[in-house]
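Components:
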Amino acid sequence: MSPVPGAPAVEVRGLTVDRGHVRALEDVSLEVATGSVTVLLGPNGSGKSTLQLAILGMVTPTAGRIRLLGRPVREALRAGMVAAVPQADEIDARFPVTVREVALQGRRPFTGPFRRPGPADRDAAEAALDRVGLAHLADRRIGDLSGGQRRRALLARCLAQEAELLVLDEPFTGVDARSEAVFVDVLRELAAQGRSAFVSTHSLGSLDALADHAVLLDRTVVAAGPAAETLTPASLVRLLGVRP
Ligand SMILES: Nc1ncnc2c1ncn2[C@@H]1O[C@H](COP(=O)(O)OP(=O)(O)OP(=O)(O)O)[C@@H](O)[C@H]1O
Ligand SMILES: [Mg+2]
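Structure:
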């Protein structure tokens, strides 16, 4: 299973999602181009996480259609083509796994659930930890890391997976300025390799360096397009009430 040549990384058409009695998304259509970083902006409760969860097959749409790399969501996920850093830190702080083991989890699409990781998997996990500046903490228990270090470990897991598409929900939360710059560098590198990222963020300071494209969301798509045209002071004031 591989991406369909020429297909966008993410294609969402007419997506409506109800969460309980709340209509979290209404008739959302958008594309994330391959080989680019697309940022997702919107106020609290505007549906950013819901949209990303739908892309990851974790909430069920009321209506609409999603394709990832030209494939149905389930197929793309099963093939390991998509990696994610969720907003709510899903790692149980008490869970007795090391930072290295978290990075190695990214290799599961290669090793399968039962096969032990081989040298190539270990090398990939090591390289990913090195890239996010956590190699020296590889033997630490994940629960003994700071919040920002834990998010870097989750990024390392994505890198180890060598996924075509990264879906990151506020990856900069709790991350210091130097690590945020590392995240931006890593995502730009992946885009240069033809991979794609869809990144929700409230961190306006990184937008210039990070974003090729932007989607402004407020339950539905308010604006979308090239970053320079979409992330104007006027549109950000209207959406978020702040100037960049
Ligand atoms: N588990 C849930 N059950 C019911 N409603 C939910 C649930 N999660 C989110 N919602 C509602 O869905 C809407 C969209 O929430 P969502 O988490 O997608 O917003 P968000 O843009 O990610 O916000 P934030 O910037 O705070 O992360 C909100 O009205 C929220 O209250
Ligand atoms: Mg959210």
